[in-house]
Specification:
The chain has a domain of 98 residues: Orthogonal Bundle (Arc Repressor Mutant, subunit A). The protein is built from seven helices and no strands. The radius of gyration is 28 Å and the shape is extended.
């Protein structure tokens, strides 16, 4: 299907409201999934690429709203497992669509004493073989200023 800004805008609007792209693309009058991928790959369609990215973030927000509705629904105690599955699926999808916002972030920061820089004693880099040989050898004696046998 030929790219038309109005069609692309309608697609992004529906996607942002929470509809899956695969279902939107199956409807008559909407572009196929292949056409959408071609639009995304076309460097002349930077406007569509940005709009689709915003729509996916909005879809993640819509999924989070659904999660709250599902979790707060107190009717039908026998449907607890189904509701849990629905929540978990939407949580996973939101994290994939907007990882910076809904993903499980983890970071590791390494600093030296007092939060300063890490000091490196030996700037040389060991080869893998030398490193393995050093690891497999006997434990080195502890660094001390005391003479042996003192």
């Amino acid at each position: 299907m030929r790219y038309r800004p109005a069609l692309a805008a309608r697609l992004c609007e529906r996607l942002g409201a929470g509809e899956p792209l695969s279902l939107i693309c199956r409807e008559p009058g909407m572009p196929s999934a292949t056409a959408v991928l071609a639009w995304l790959a076309d460097p002349r369609r930077a406007d569509f690429q940005a709009a689709l990215a915003r729509a996916r973030e909005a879809r993640a927000d819509a999924l989070v709203d659904e999660i709250l509705s599902i979790a707060d629904d107190a009717t039908g105690a026998e449907q607890v497992q189904r509701s849990k599955l629905r929540v978990d699926t939407r949580r996973w999808l939101a994290a994939k669509l907007a990882p910076a916002k809904y993903g499980e972030a983890s970071s590791l920061e390494i600093t030296g004493p007092g939060g300063g820089a890490i000091m490196v004693d030996r700037p040389e880099r060991l080869s893998r073989e030398a490193w393995l040989a050093r690891r497999e050898g006997p434990e080195p004696p502890p660094d001390t200023d005391e003479p042996a046998g003192a």
